User: What shape does this take?
Amino acid sequence: MSRAGPLAFYEFFAGGGMARLGLGEGWECRFANDFDPLKAGVYRDNFGAHDLREGDVWALGPGDLPGRVDLAWASSPCQDFSLAGGRAGLKGGRSGAFFGFWRLVEALAGEGRAPRAVMIENVTGLLTSHGGEDFTALCRALAAAGYRFGALQIDAAAFLPQSRPRFLLAALETPPAALLGDSPFHGRAVREAHARLPDDIRNGWLWWRAPAPPVRNLDLAAVLEPDDAVRWHSIGQTARLVALMAPAHRRKLAAMQAAGGRRVAGVFRRMRTEGGERRQRAELRDDGVCGCLRTPRGGSSRQAVMVVEDGGVRSRLISGREAARLMGLPEDYRLPPSQTAALHVAGDGVAVPVVRWLAEQLLEPLLLHTPVSAAAE
Assistant: This one.
């Protein structure tokens, strides 16, 4: 190895500290930032207050960031990139916060303290936002700062019983050739985004070699609370949820009933266009994986679970602790007491096992086995 001691990092848009948890004990957090008081409070409850600066990233200066770190992690707000939103892109006020982060990286570079690596995590909509212009702007900023970069498209369903596709872009000052090659996470969206880049920016692109993880052995039923520990919908509420299902989803439900035994499925509500009209539909997912968790006030509505047992059907809303498990958070992770607040924290983060896998397969090999051009302080 080219260094001793833990790898150091900054965690921007830190939320509840899920990137920190995923990086693990071999990493030292030097600085964390989030502007949301609720998330900042949860971060302090779980990690203490000494690393965290609550407030707008635009209010920070390079003097607020101690030393030089190996990694700057940024999970910037995704609402303006999301396919469920208005697609304002990097011009949107929330996702524009990315450039508040990036100006700090540029300022650190001016002081000879640029992070050795940068990891950017966001929704896959960023790859196509504004016809790819937003992704091009992101890559242009990285290239101008002297980084080489490449993207991976990873669904948390490879690790957890939750479908949560995200794109992750890893950038490094001096990447080693040993970590370049094919990956199952070079999906079509990534390849098309790469093809849209101008030639001068594409020259800085790297295809990270990242293998598939072991086959997931956890399903939705395994993360649920005991039946007697949760509040169930009334018969009428369940009937109304079933009434929102399109015929194909009602057939799924009928098949679950006919199969016998106990069956668990996720249910989420979406707006669909049918016959030229927009209408709300309840959609059943019976493959042991739930749909993407969202914050209670954004995207799709709060998810439900449907349990079929001996032909009977019950439903209820997913709990905050169940959402935490679906994000890979440990049982001793402190959630706020309010279900809405807990779902807000869990539904707006990065899945912990995804970060751990990236650390093991990419970040740690890159940073531990690559010479340090200027020692981290």
About this structure: The longest helix spans residues 352-368.
